Amino acid sequence: MSNDIIISATKLTKRFGHFTAVDEITFDVHKGEIFGFLGANGAGKTTAMRMLCGLSMPTSGKASVAGFDVYKHNEDIKKNIGYMSQKFSLYEDLTVRENMQLYGGIYGKSKAFIKDKTQEIVDQLHLGNEADKLVKSLPLGWKQKLAFSVAIFHEPGIVFLDEPTGGVDPVTRREFWNMIYEAADKGITVFVTTHYMDEAEYCSRVSIMVDGKIEAMDTPAELRKRYNAPSMDEVFLKLARKATRSE
Amino acid sequence: MRTLKFLLQKEFRQIFRDKANVRMIFMMPVIQLLILPWAADYEIKNIKLSVADHDHSTYSRQLVSKITSSGYFQLTGYKDSYEKSLEQIEDDEADIILEIPASFEKTLIKENEAKLFVASNAINGVKGSLGSAYLRSILQDFNREVRLEWIQMPKFNPQTQIEVTSSNWFNPSMNYKFFMVPGMLVLLLTMVGTNLTAINIVKEKEIGTIEQINVTPVKKYHFIIGKLIPFWVLGLIAMTMGLIIAFVIYGILPLGSYLTIYGFAAVYLLAVLGLGLLISTFVSTQQQAMLISFFIMMIFVLLSGLYTSIDSMPVWAQWITRFNPVTYFIEVMRMVVLKGSTFADIKIHLLKITGFAVALNGLAILSYRKRS
Predict the structure, then answer these.
(1) What total of structural domains would you count in chain B?
(2) What is the pLDDT of residue A1?
(3) Which residues of A touch B22 (CB under 8 A)?
């Protein structure tokens, strides 16, 4: 098993002054998994993810992503990952096509690759009529799906999704998860944070973070059994009630 | 290189898609250059004059009409006592008082001399002193005319006289606009360069797109160069428009070559863009960026020698002007436009501004972090 570990963190910690946002978390993610990173608001999910993506410098601990150390080789990590942040962060004043062209280009993809891939995504998302419209004119659900497609445009080995379905209607959420499954089928490891517990059921494995620490980590089925709960919702409530930290 | 191409393409698309941006870049220089040079003028005109005439003679009236016909004075009061004129000064209806004593004409004819009294409101020191200086020279003129009219001048003047003739180099007609317009052009370029760059980058911070870029393998210098080049081009376009206006509206054609101006501007723009970049790395909102660049701009303008001569500033202030890139470009602009200076004449300036460009961009690159 250990040779297919693609993300590994050991006692990874981030402090802001006296505040410990992420407190010695240790976990491994295997290749091809959909790893759910759960936790209440302010539990430290985003901070942990930002450290793994090379956006935030850890205070202590060890971590590697795609075989690269987060301290020394953070720029190498970036070539191998896709990232979709909590905030919608495509360029709203560029068109759908132009956004894909930009991100394809800066990951060093060829002109032909960009062209084919763009067409593929436009077809997949049924954006035929919108491809040359500014992104800001799209409804939120489409924007989120587009952001995900752009995050995996360059076909990375791992994609980090930070609350990708926030504010999106249930139908679109369902479609979004279908896209995640498709990506996982292609061998992309998915690292996703969420606080929708129904989404946790879709993950191969989940970890639940409370006050900067990982309180539980296993498959959803195993966790339900261990906490004697009918749903992940119950599991989460049992664990998260212990939280002392508020937003 | 390819990454840079994509970043530049994105930047230019965004800039020209944003109508407010385009307006700011093109309209601001045009409007400012069309309006400001007419208003920002050192020549004191429309000095409000109150005459306290106790004489009411032919001469006193001749004197007053001579003064008002000079074009610099505006007669706002013709009183019969000094107190009444003083009241006008207190009410801000007059800047300067000319008191003509009761026996002005009589003494002038009889005794060949007469005394006048001038009092000025010195709240605005420049207006006060220039006003009385103008008035004095008109009075001297008047004096000469009276002497010519009345007194038979001796064939040989018994008194030695030194006559001074002066010639004004480089700006022969002492046209104030020739002095101001090139300087204002520099200010506009500075504002466009610093503000736009700072705000553009901070906007990406606010929206969160910069994070999306930071998580890609885009190199720091790619990102920065990708930001600098578009605004560098825009700066040069804005300057070109300014130079066209300077020629079309004010008839200002540089004595030196445009090449020298553009050469210097090219390096200068790098320096101010670097400043904008540096500001953007320290702030997190567009408002902060605006406030800081506004503050810096105030210092730049007041300590640049645009309005006031650097030579007459206190020594410590003169030192500050040496750390102000605006100072150098204003000097260069005036040298090239009015004196026809060449690259050889401005090489020290060019060297210094290159120093600014390297230092500011270096600092900006050092303080720009892809990882927090």
Answers:
(1) 2
(2) 45
(3) none
